[in-house]
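Lab meeting notes turned into a lecture example. A postdoc, R.K., suggested we walk through two folding results consecutively so the class can see how the record format repeats. The first protein's sequence and structure tokens come next.
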Amino acid sequence: MQRISLLLTGTLLAASCFPAIADDTADLIAQDKAWGAAGTKGDKDAVAKFLADRAVSVDETGVMNKQAQLAATEPAPAGTQYEPTDYKVTFLNADTAIMTHDTKGEDAHHSLHVWSRKDGKWQVVATSSTPVKNK
């Protein structure tokens, strides 16, 4: 009887967590799209809001902290659109998520972001992008 009670308690706890994770997934995807759009416009103030103070970035140019990422933020050429695809979000816990996605277009790349929630606010603590190789 005790095993059944523990099993039911665990099942109910897991089921009650599912809606929060699903809602956070949609929120993180929306935030990623807004972050990408801000970067495409070169809006450093908007980009800064998505990055944690101790954020680190890795790309083909090297490793950067938040300040270097913001310094490198420039408007994309006219007509450039941020077109993310194939989002996958994996939660390590309620406040940490790993996101991967691809992008299409002129600056096509594969992305990996680590999002952390602190005081109810999601921010990127680590990010990496790899250019898509031409076939």
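The second example is placed directly after the first for contrast:
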Amino acid sequence: MKENSGKPTDLRSQRRREQRRLLWVVAGFLVAGGSIAIWLVYGPSAVPLGLTCLFAGAGTLGLLWLILTLIEKLVDK
């Protein structure tokens, strides 16, 4: 069992780490799951174009996360 060292728990940094992890999981699932679905439905020749679109979607997701993170930092100041 983990010993309590008496240090206060930083819940904000834990939340930020968890949100970052979830962002990577969602983006990875979008790209990997989407490319597998494209491969199964349309065949292997459609995967390169599909990956391009999936990476654009994951990039948009990352951009939205970045904007919201910056807004959060501005509000906290």
